[in-house]
Amino acid sequence: MHMLEPVLLAVRLSLPEAGLMALLMFLSGIVRGFTGFGSSALVVTSMGLITPARELVPMMNLLEILASLHLLPRVWRQIDWSVIGWIVLLGFLTVPLGQWVLLLLPVAPMRLLVSVLVLSAALLLWRQREPWMAPNARTWMATGAVAGLMNGLAAVGGMGAMLMFLGTRIPALQIRATLIGLLFIMGIYAGSVALANGLMNSVIAARVGLMIGPLVLGVMLGSHCFTRSQPASFRHLTLLLMIILALCGIVHSLL
Description:
Order of helices and strands: HHHHHHHHHHH
Radius of gyration: 17 Å
Distance between the termini: 32 Å
Helix content: over 70%
């Protein structure tokens, strides 16, 4: 314990809290490696009971960047950069709006609203077997607006983007790859906005340094699982994950 004291002081967590966060980072890394998103939603929902969202969101913005750096070389050829361009165009406008709301309004009601919307959309997509959205500029601009707002508000922009992707006929391999590229760009932008808004500090930097190891190990395992899975199962597993995360978010907001 004596040897860990400087580390625990730097991250301002007790040993049980640091251990729990490391475990959640590993599990969230598995989710991120398999689906291309979800790590922030899992950590913010779970750790939010003991750590303020204003500390978790900017930390996860930075960790999303690092997780994407690990995954990008493997998916680069499958990324649709034209889709990312349209999404980023609107996403860059709505990320600051989400962070502004995070700073000014009570966190719990906002997170409850986001969780209810995600749950409703995921259940609708679960019942809607056939894709209902055309993969065009209008769809991707709407995706950018939703993802940017959710990323700024709760660091869960990937959930918003994935909901829109699953409403199209885009193959699972391309969805995952494009989402990884998108979250890398959005993470850099959201992290920059968080820094400008004073949400970054030395404690968050120390936590990022401590948690990057468990996260990357989880990402490696999740990516390995994806390569061995059937493409047909990707949609159902992803929607199931979003339903679970949304339910956890609702419970967390009500506690």
